[in-house]
């Protein structure tokens, strides 16, 4: 009887150990990408109106003079409140492809760049990992980025994603969906490199100064806000060039490539034009970065993963 009880106890302990091992097993690559995509789609549903306002300001000097609140007022007054969500379906597809990869692939890229111990994990390696993940995500998401930009910039009634895509395909072929790919990849590399490296690095500083845990919601929040500001500083010029390239008329070509666009903007409109719309870009990046990373970190915790 005593031996039987001992055997049962050992079996129960063995089962518990197996259960704990299974629960602690980290999610695979697809699960990480899926969590990142979920966080991104949820976030963009709330942040999209700021993106619409930012795009209008970037493509039009008239909207630029009105500023963020003036542009919002004109868009709502002329086109209705729903105009602030123009292109949101394309934005969902973009986030499900682009952001899921650039956020979900960051940690695997860190390992690939040799970030295996605190001693080997430098800021430059974090930036390189973020840039690599951003470039891969950009290749997947560029077609939806083009559609989203054109739909947000269209004035009047609600733009259809199918109609916008059909017109683009008819006038420019498949290549039209990869318009601005050079500037978009450069933007994605700078954006994600800055975002993930600053966020990762800022976490260490926040923990050291505050004493909070690395997985704390407050640590995530303040680190993400910091990353959002520096992203705006580095990405604004690339964002301007990308928006101009993607929003060219379907039947015309104003800029030959990213370099041509950069030169024409600088010579014809002045260098400060690259930072036109800084406030709406920051207003979009700050909450977007914060919400994305907070939701992503919470999903990682639910899946038994450590904090970034």
Task: Please describe what this structure looks like.
The chain has helices at residues 2-24, 29-59, 61-79, 88-104, 106-112, 123-153, 161-172, 181-210, 217-246, 258-268, 278-302. The chain has 308 residues and is an all-alpha fold. It has one domain (32-302): Mitochondrial carrier domain (Mitochondrial carrier fold). The longest helix is centred in the N-terminal third of the chain and has 31 residues, at 29-59. The termini are far apart. Belongs to the mitochondrial carrier (TC 2.A.29) family.
What is the CATH class designation? Mainly Alpha
Count of DSSP H/I helices: 11
Radius of gyration (CA) equals: 23 Å
SSE run = HHHHHHHHHHH
Number of domains: 1
Shape: globular
CA-CA gap between termini: 50 Å
Estimate the mean pLDDT confidence: 85
Low confidence ranges? 14-24
- The CATH superfamily title: Mitochondrial carrier domain
| CATH architectural category | Alpha/alpha barrel
Structural class: mainly alpha
Number of strands: 0
CATH topology: Mitochondrial carrier fold
Work out the strand percent. under 5%
| Helical content (DSSP H or I, runs of 4+) | over 70%
Largest sheet: none
Protein name: Mitochondrial carrier protein
Solcar repeats: 27-112, 121-205, 215-302
InterPro entries: MCP_dom_sf (IPR023395), MCP_transmembrane (IPR018108), Mito_Metabolite_Transporter (IPR050391)
Keywords: Membrane, Repeat, Transmembrane, Transmembrane helix, Transport
